[in-house]
Amino acid sequence: MIDLHTHTVYSDGELIPAELARRAQYMGYRALAFTDHVDHSNVGFILDSLLKLVHEYSIHCDMELLAGVELTHVPPALIPECATEAKRHGAQLVIVHGETIVEPVQTGTNLAAIEAGVDILAHPGLITEEEARVAAEKGVLLEITTRKGHSLTNGHVLNMARRAGAGLVINNDAHAPGDLVSAEMRRKVALGAGMSEEEAGMCEENARRIIQDRINP
User: Fold this and answer.
1) Contact 50/6 with Cβ under 8 angstroms?
2) DSSP of 5-73, one letter per residue?
3) Are the CB atoms for 73 and 42 separated by under 8 Å?
4) Fewer CB within 10 Å: N-end or C-end of the chain?
5) Other C-beta atoms within 10 Å of 41: how many?
6) DSSP 166-180
7) Which of 128, 88, 131 has the alpha carbon at shortest distance from 112?
């Protein structure tokens, strides 16, 4: 398993990176991205801290770890600038907190993130078909999530991705130990959203390609 969306004590997660990595490894994950919530105020601090440990911990944890960020509630007009700043600080993965229906995310966030060419648009809620088409053109992956609340629109996201030919990835958006679901639960969430077994497998392949691209640039 690979998960590209997790949170540590650097934002609102419960675990320090080392414990999150160990718990994920114990559950069978072979790669994990730390993607704490950031805006312009903390993006440099978090990345400077995480980048110091991911390489060494990857070796000793026997799994691939990435230092990423999740741009969260950043005004749409400032998303491109914040994404660029994250990359300048060495972010190996940039995702954006999409327009989930269970939080007051500003309208326009989905499109701004996609047009900025970030890696993943997390829990994009009621994303439009046109936005999904731009995501397909830009190579931005749309997230199917196992997280409660955000997962309510998984079926819609899958439908829009199919229509537009956009790529998908399955993530946990883990904040606590119990959020790291098993391979079987990930599969059930995917099938429950209406995915075929083949589509679920493609999600894992998309995640694998990101890991390979980041560790072998």
Assistant:
1) no
2) EE--TTTT-SS-HHHHHHHHHHTT-SEEEEEEEE-TTTHHHHHHHHHHHHHHHHHHHTSEEEEEEEE-S
3) no
4) C
5) 7
6) --EEEE--BSSGGGS
7) 131
For the chain, domains (ranges, CATH) are 2-215 (3.20.20.140)
Amino acid, single-letter form, for residue 24: A
What integer pLDDT is reported at residue 217 of this predicted model?
Answer: 65
> Is this prediction's pTM over 0.90?
yes
Residue matched to tokens 């209406």: 194
Label the pairing between strands 93-97 and 120-122. parallel
d(CA 52, CA 28): 24
Distance separating alpha carbons of residues 186 and 90, to the nearest angstrom: 30
Q: Two tokens at 141?
A: 């992956």
| Cα–Cα distance for residue pair 134/122, rounded to 1 Å | 15
pLDDT value at position 69? 98
Question: In this structure, what token pair is assigned to residue 195?
Answer: 């995915």
Return phi, psi of residue 107, to 5°: -60, 135
Closest of 15, 77, 67 to residue 38, by C-alpha: 67
Q: Whole-angstrom distance between the N-terminal and C-terminal Cα of the chain?
A: 21
Question: Which residues of the chain, if any, have pLDDT below 50?
Answer: none
CA-based nearest residue to 131, from 159, 155, 105, 89: 159
In this structure, the chain runs to a length of 217
In the numeric block, the tokens 């190579």 are attached to 139
- Give tens-digit pLDDT for 89-103: 999 999 999 999 999
Q: What is the pLDDT of residue 52?
A: 86
